[in-house]
Task: structure prediction
Amino acid sequence: MTLVDAPLYERLGGESTVDAVVQDFYRRVLGDAALAKLFADVSMPRQRRMLAAFVSEATGGPSVYRGRDAVEAHSDVRITANRMRKMVGHLADALGDHDIDAGLVDETIDAITPIADAIVQASTTTTTTRTTTSTTSSNRSSTSTTPTKKKAGTRSRSTRSTSGQTKARPPRPATTSATPHTKETPMASNNGRTAAIDQPETDTSDEKILDELFADFDGDHSVLVDMKGQLAAIDKSQAVISFEMDGTIIDANDNFLGALGYTRDEIVGQHHRIFAEPEYAASPEYAAFWAKLGRGEFDAGEYKRIGKGGKEVWIQASYNPILDDQGQPFKVVKYATDITAQKLRNADYEGQLAAIDKSQAVISFELDGTIIDANDNFLGAVGYSRDEVVGQHHRIFAEPGYAASPEYTEFWAKLGRGEFDA
Result:
């Protein structure tokens, strides 16, 4: 058997390489704030052994995996498509850092992608089942005060978790292939390699997150209904985009995509810098901008951004770090309004005013006649400098007799009523 014909496991370097890659993979994952919380109560030595055994079997090595079915084992863990994409990216980086050929890295990712898809789908299905069960239970409790008796001999279709809570067991996926209503999203690793994973269309939406909250929330659901309604209203009226803390785009709503001219597939997984001018993206100011967000500080103002095809877009926006239960930022959400048309109108007005300033003598006053400013054409005509007139009264330009007359008083009274005089 030639090397080309050898199993992927052997071409990767066998047990020693797989073990080293797994060690490096978990080092990266535990250093990722968005992922580390998933392993807070996990025995990591056992976890590393389990993953090494799983990778061995998935890549054609020895069948030494003795754990639970991988999909079933993760069905109660909220592994969203974004989290899975990050984990697969960390695995690709770990493989690359052990001098494994890029082709073998891609082949390895291809080998684990089907099971990754199934794990994400199982987690999604579990959340949906919990939500339905919670809502149904709530409806039953609100319409009946009589306990329902279970027939003798029947078995509950739920399982008892280790925490004592009863949870519905999700149906097992029929296959590990892509499921309906999904999209294929590129997964970019830090070293530039990409893979793809099928993810549910709504996985990162605020509505999805609130559905998960519904499943676990034991209090008044009207509070979450109100939150959900407010988020839906914001989504309709604002351009919204979310980022990982490193600037990687998680998702964007239709308003944002329409303003910048992109489709969702074109930006998810890319970095925020695709919306910035190259010079600004490479500047210390841009680095400081993301460092500020990384400290959990918001940033708001008017921003010039670059849309698809290089079009200039102006937005009034706020970048808002979202904090976890430990007070640490784990993502950034931007709410924005497209003010490009307003900016263009203002630029047009400014252009017109500049043209008037070049051709006309212009002076401005407070309503009591005090001089605010005057342009060079006016100053040249009357022979004053700016410092000599600003703060003085208009009467310095009038004959003393007229300045003391009822007509002059009426002249300023007329202007005070908002009436022009020519």
DSSP finds 18 helices and eleven strands in the chain. The CA atoms of residues 395 and 403 lie 6 Å apart. Confidence is low (pLDDT under 50) at residues 130-204. The first helix runs from residue 8 to 12.
